[in-house]
Design goal:
heterodimer, A: 117 residues, alpha+beta, Glutaredoxin, four-stranded mixed sheet, 5 helices, globular, disordered N terminus, B: 570 residues, alpha/beta, Rossmann fold, nine-stranded mixed sheet, 24% strand, rod-shaped
Chain lengths: 117, 570
Amino acid sequence: MNTPPTGTQTETDQDPPDIWTLRLYVAGQTPKSITAFGNLKRICEEHLQGRYQIEVIDLLEHPQLARGDQILAIPTLVRRLPEPVRKIIGDLSNTERVLIGLDLLPRASARSATDVN
Amino acid sequence: MNPEKPLLPKSPTGIQGLDEITGGGLPTGRPTLVCGDAGCGKTLLAMEFLVRGATRFNEPGVFMAFEETGAELAQNVASLGFDLDALIAAGRLVVDYVYIERSEIEETGEFDLEGLFVRLGYAIDSIGARRVVLDTVETLFAGLPNPLILRAELRRLFRWLKDRGVTAIITGERGAGSLTRQGLEEYVSDCVIVLDHRVKDLISTRRLRVVKYRGSTHGTNEYPFVIDSDGIAVLPITSLGLGHSASTERVSSGIPRLDAMLAGAGFYRGSSILVSGTAGTGKTSLAGHFAAAACGRGERVLFFAFEESPSQIVRNLGSVGIDLAPWVAKGLLRFLAARPTVAGLELHLTTMHKAILEFRPHIVIIDPLNSFISAGNEIEVKAMLLRLLDFLKMSQITGFFTKLTAGGSALEHTDAAISSLIDSWLVLLAIESGGERNRAFSILKSRGMAHSNQTREFLLTAQGVELRDVYVGPGGVLTGSARLTQEAQDAAAQLARRHEIAHGQRELEHRRATLEAQIASLRNEFAIQEADTLAAVERHQAREAQLDQERADMAASRKADAPGTDGGQS
């Protein structure tokens, strides 16, 4: 189930780090944040099984982090590792876009995906 | 804060002039939209609003910057004397730079801007902020996808700001056909201020207009404003500041005859003096006299020259016997020369303001004023002069201005715009007659003194300005050679008249002498006759007595019987 995408991923990222550090910023348990977390979990399981760490930050509890990490939109997913840092906003329902944003899909297909949209 | 009953609570901005126009400031607890083109001063206005709030009105503020980082902002406003770092350290200000880079953001579904709300809310709570600035929130549209969501979120943001009760400024870039590119004016409808940076005849002027102010009256005009070392100043603080005290001290004009015409003592200190006249009537010379006299009293004079260079003025005035060079060397007289077209009015005003504050002069001379009229329209110039005059009066500085009247136009015409600002107005005019141009001088008005109503002839001699009485006679007012000729004729006629009178008197004297001589001779004659007559009478009496004696003797000798027979003889 997870073999073919993992293969794609190893091809795009020549030297993948051992662990992916992902942060999901939410503001309270809103439907959007729950959806986002569910989507993230699913995508990671499919593409980064065993190689990822998800940290959920509730800005209502840690409002100072919004400034520190330059968060505006909610939900925002930040790929902290591997470098460079990537930011993905929205509820992560568009899987293809998420993969592109995480560099799990080559950018070239991103263009075509956008065009289709 | 308002003396009158405030229908709508207002938060003073602390920006000179803006609070007057808006009748007390921006609406408290509501967002205000400040929009304008790039570089027109939106960020500065917003920042001054926060800084004044934090320093003067005890209202801490949050500046959310979408375009500049905190360090950049601090640098940019340091020139206005705002120390952001100190305010931040003191917990009076929060500057939050929002970094958005479109290329780094991937949109993957529904989102909202709750992060921004959390962030802003946290910043507000951290210092108890009463004021908020969002500069420029429209950057979000460039940085984030999905304008539909953004619009909805912005609407929510403005409502949220209102609910929080913070007084907010939202800046927006001017768009084509609308006030802002994204139509923010639809959401922020309580107060809208438009800034403008317009170039007219190659000279730029900043202007401010309150387009809308819900629930309040406001000045609706376009007001020029300047950005100087004290921040923003909106220009027409018209007659609001008529609280300056009036000095009764007099300052000499440097020309004794002129002082005499000004009720004997010269101008009032702190008054504004205008000298108007056509080209070459001696306006600058009057200014030179005034300056030299002030320096002679040990006062400082600041001379703004807008037509001649300082050395040219010194040389030219030297030719009429006014030596300014020693005063310049002593540091009592300072020249500042610039072409009026070198900058907009606002900048001129700023420069002059600064120079006056630095030099602290007793007297300020501007030669000539109307150079500015070429630099801006009359209304703007008036507004600028008004501000300058107010400033001078507040500081008890005497202002001396010259003004070139265009040939052919009525003397008072172009000056009408500023005449109400002027306390003493001297008029120089050229009288052309008999193949000569001569200068005449009169005082059009001089507030608060019984000034002379006479026209004087104005002479530029090697010893300076000299005022002479003009010849007023049946032939009209005569000046120059005509006056001299007329005076010579008058003198000749007078001499002739004197001769005539003397002659008449001599003749009379002569006749009296003659008459008296005649009287004397007649008296003599009479006396002689009188004496003769008396002598004759005496003789006759003596003779008669003698005859009587002889008769008596005769009778005695004839032994006449009675003396009574005397009659028998006859």
